[in-house]
Write a structure and sequence with these properties.
CATH architecture of the largest domain: 7 Propeller
Number of strands: 35
CATH topology of the largest domain: Methylamine Dehydrogenase, Chain H
Shape: elongated
Distance between the termini: 23 Å
Strand content: 35-45%
């Protein structure tokens, strides 16, 4: 038996829901409209999106919360909105992607006369479906479809080419809307850009490849490469990447500043620090996502996690799991002298994305207290649904996450062999 103890940019990225249900939100920079004042009662946030002067959060129940500037209704979430899987905040509008592949938009842009910001950016094309990603710019919107094509709308009157998707553009896997330009990442790791180019922001460097994320800003473009380094072009110094910057996992661009999330959970920033957008709070760590508005920045911060020991298939000679078995996988969270595993809430437990099985007509969780390793301490023994496991075939590590009844977050790992 083995036991292993485990110790956005408004102009760039749509934020997608991720497994981070108890994360907190931290914001800094311009707060003229309250966009950096996170609601005190907000909980369950899984994704964030910073707009021009407003902020949006996606919750783990698929609902959306918004605050900050509401001059154009951009912070007034539709009362019937549900089933949201991604959000993006533009200059004066907000966009949501639903789990059925349809798009909902609200705020500025419900008409097309551009007086002054109603440029059609909230008028979702009729019949648009099969959408997998969204991104909102100042007065335009982009949508990526499941077939790898891109749809753009808005910017009427302010259109400088940002909605003119290059003919034949295909095999796209990510999109990002800048202030007045647009960028697409193709499956081969190359980048295509179009729109306003007065500062060279659409002049993609020759030979650029191995890109994995995009963050266009006002007059510049920033990309994250697969090796964790950052490259940029255009702008007024924003493309001058700090020397030695590496291990970057995400990027976001303000109007004049750039934010880079590192693998250690800290944030690096550079630019002109317009209105405090680059004033990262001292000691900020544990960040799992970032998003950048015009002059404010928002971060999603994971709660402290306690490492625990787990044992998958306890008292078994093999940790092999057959995904087609349609049964349940046994897993034990092991107690220690300083940790009582029986205080973990079964409703919070997931193993590689799989939830604890329900029994007694769905009214009780399949967990119980047992001393599975004969050390005299009661462990929490549970059964999770095999069909829900998010693991690839072969030898891999399965991660268990949970929360105690007292709010303590726990995490443990064990090696398994997955058979299709």
């Amino acid at each position: 038996m083995k036991r292993i103890t485990a110790a956005l940019s408004i102009f760039a990225l749509c934020a997608s829901a991720q497994a981070n249900a108890a994360a907190t939100i931290v914001a800094w920079g311009d707060n003229t409209y309250g966009q950096a004042s996170v609601p005190a009662d907000l909980n369950g946030a899984t994704a964030i999106a910073a707009g021009g002067s407003h902020t949006v959060a996606l919750k783990n129940d698929g609902s959306v919360v918004a605050w900050g500037d509401n001059t154009w209704g951009q912070a007034t979430v539709p009362t019937d909105l549900a089933g949201v899987m991604a959000i993006s905040a533009g200059g004066f509008h907000t966009v949501a992607l639903r789990s059925n592949g349809t798009v909902v938009a609200w705020g500025g842009g419900t008409t097309t006369e551009c007086a002054p910001v109603n440029c059609g950016q909230s008028i979702v094309p009729a019949g648009l479906s099969g959408v997998t990603a969204i991104s909102a710019g100042r007065v335009h919107t982009l949508a990526l479809k499941s077939d790898g094509t891109v749809v753009a709308w808005g910017a009427t009157g302010y259109d400088v080419g940002q909605t003119s998707v290059p003919p034949g553009l295909s095999s796209v896997k990510a999109i990002a809307a800048g202030a007045y330009h647009s960028i697409a990442l193709k499956n081969d790791g190359t980048v295509v850009a179009w729109g306003w180019n007065d500062w060279g922001q659409t002049n993609v460097p020759d030979g650029l490849n191995a890109v994995r994320a995009l963050a266009p800003g006002f007059r510049f473009s920033i990309v994250l490469k697969s090796d964790g380094t950052v490259t940029g072009w255009g702008g007024e110094g924003q493309a001058d990447i700090p020397a030695g910057l590496s291990s970057v996992t995400a990027i976001a661009s303000n109007f004049y500043d750039v934010q880079a999330l590192k693998s250690d959970g800290t944030v690096a920033t550079w630019g002109i620090n317009a209105l405090g957008a680059g004033n990262t709070p001292p000691g900020l760590s544990g960040v799992t996502a970032i998003s950048a508005g015009w002059f404010h920045t928002v971060a999603l911060v994971a709660p402290p996690v306690t490492a625990v020991a787990i044992d998958i298939r306890p008292r078994s000679l093999s940790n092999t799991i057959h995904l087609q078995s349609q049964g349940a996988v046994r897993v034990a969270i092991l107690s220690s002298a300083s940790f009582d595993a029986t205080q973990v809430d079964p409703a919070s437990v997931t193993l590689a994305g799989a939830f604890v099985r329900l029994k007694a007509k769905g009214k009780k969780y399949a967990c119980s207290a047992h001393d599975v390793n004969s050390d005299g301490l009661a462990d929490l023994f549970c059964r999770v649904e095999t069909a829900q496991l998010e693991l690839e075939p072969g030898d891999t590590t399965a991660v268990l996450e949970g929360v105690t009844f007292g709010g303590q977050h726990v995490r443990g790992e064990d090696r398994v062999r997955i058979v299709p």
